[in-house]
Design goal:
Blueprint (H helix, E strand, L loop, with lengths): L5 E5 L6 H8 L11 E2 L2 E2 L5 H7 E4 L10 H11 L6 H7 L16 H13 L5 E5 L7 H17 L3 E6 L2 H7 L2 E6 L2 E7 L3
Parallel strand pairs: 1-6, 1-7, 4-5, 5-6
Antiparallel strand pairs: 2-3, 7-8
Bound molecules: adenosine-5'-diphosphate (ADP) and magnesium ion.
The site of adenosine-5'-diphosphate has 9 residues, from helix 1.
């Protein structure tokens, strides 16, 4: 049971952290057991709708060809909605001038923020963040961490944050779930 709020999934490489995130929005299917989202078996939900409500930001940026604004509009357009591009970019820590930039030419840190903006444009209830800072240098990583902190303060969005960084988990999450070799080792609350 993952409660509303900020949860960190902590564990060494290969522990099953990414797999657990993927189970939560049906990018993977369990061999046994069921996954429920707000009390409903995820298999009974429309899969695209589920992925908009529980939106995964992968470990490495994977942007579509085109501009930043093309990328941010893409998901909401599929859902027949208009995106608040400026709002999403702002929340992801990108100023309005980024909108027209070519997504593929941005730095990895900037691309990671565009991935975040894409997710936020869907107005998800849950953000599934897979090691959002692991590909980044210390300074860029600290910037993303501040952005994630602000999001949690400003939006009614729950986060499930995968990391192997205990410090990051303690700073950003109120609960830490520890995984090892595909099994749950411990769950504990962190002191904020
Ligand atoms: N669909 C799958 N079926 C079986 N094994 C898988 C599947 N997906 C991933 N794995 C394996 O599960 C283990 C955990 O992978 P992963 O969740 O990516 O770990 P982590 O993100 O904690 O580093 C790895 O050994 C991986 O090869
Ligand atoms: Mg992983």
């Amino acid at each position: 049971m993952i409660e509303p709020g900020a949860t960190a999934l902590l564990g060494p490489s290969g522990a099953g952290k990414s797999t657990l995130l993927r189970l939560l929005n049906r990018l993977a299917e369990p061999e046994s057991g069921t996954v429920q989202f707000r009390g409903q078996d995820v298999r009974t939900l429309d899969v695209l709708d589920l992925r908009r409500r529980a939106c995964l930001v992968p470990q490495l940026p994977a942007l579509l060809p085109g501009s930043v604004v093309d990328n941010v509009r893409y998901g909401p357009r599929l859902a027949g909605r208009r995106a608040d591009v400026r709002g999403a970019l702002g929340l992801a820590g990108l100023g309005a001038p980024y909108a027209e930039r070519e997504a593929g030419r941005l730095s990895v840190g900037e691309q990671q923020r565009v991935m975040l903006a894409r997710a936020l444009a869907l107005e998800p209830r849950v953000l599934l963040l897979d090691e959002p800072t692991s590909a980044l240098d210390e300074e860029t990583s600290a910037g993303i961490e501040r952005t994630l902190w602000d999001l949690q303060e400003r939006l009614a969005v729950s986060t499930v944050l995968v990391t192997h960084d205990r410090g990051l988990a303690a700073r950003l999450a109120t609960r830490v779930v520890q995984l090892r070799e595909g099994r749950l080792l411990a769950t504990r609350a962190t002191v904020m």
